[in-house]
Amino acid sequence: MSSLVVAHARLLLLEQLRVPISLVAGAVFPAITMVAFVVPFTGDDPKAATMATGSLMFFGAMSGALTGLSITVAQDRELPWNPYVRTLPAGPYPRLAGRVLATLATVLLSVVPVLVVSALLTEATTTPLRLLLGLGALVVGVVPFMLIGLFIGFVMTAKGAIPVSQVVFFPMAIAGGLLLPPQILPDFIEVVSPYTPARGVAELLWAITADTTPNTVALVSLAGWTVLAAAGAAWAYRRDEGRRFS
């Protein structure tokens, strides 16, 4: 089974690399934001620059996890190949697991430009251990967003998944403080912010890489969102399985 998962992951990753525009967009936009807003305004402040680096790294990762996975899963469901794969003895799980692994690979690739900009153009600083722990936290942090992406991908058509995933993604990113520091957000957004999953991941990244004190409410909220997203993704998969293959 593991060899099948790896084979599917390799195939799906190659498919994405053959049309790399979505990967490039997901990686370049956070880096451009870094150059335009972080470098000139907070690039000389080590702590602020480090926190901004963590935020924009996760912004790109979150985009790939939520919008990328939702769209590709929805597209997979509309391909003639997909029903055939789901009737094979191995079932749909190797391909689905391969899709998740391929998405994780693109998520990790998306953080590289932000790290390069941060290292070359700002005073952001952290230790190698904190950086590795931060990358580990980023991988764990994208899990609820991948689950949300799976939910959208299993309940929407490919055309519907594109706008819906964007509508879900951007408000979460803004309210979570990924584009602007939480303390300068409007009052009503600042009140809601700790209850969004993006804020929970941001707090975790800031605590690991910049040695800040995390917001407990945000971390508890992140755990709750993860459980809720897992339940929603499982329900959406069973719903799709029942409608199309029962």
From TrEMBL:
Subcellular localization(s) per the UniProt record: Membrane
InterPro entries named among the record's database cross-references: ABC2_TM (IPR013525), ABC_2_transport (IPR000412), Nod_factor_ABC_transporter (IPR051784)
Transmembrane helix among keywords: yes
Domain ABC-2 type transporter transmembrane, first and last residues per copy: 14-195
Coiled coil residues, start to end: none
Membrane topology field: Multi-pass membrane protein
Transmembrane segments: 21-43, 55-75, 96-121, 133-155, 167-185, 216-237
Keywords recorded for this protein, A-Z: Antibiotic resistance, Membrane, Transmembrane, Transmembrane helix
Main location: membrane
Name of the protein described by the UniProt record: ABC-2 type transporter transmembrane domain-containing protein
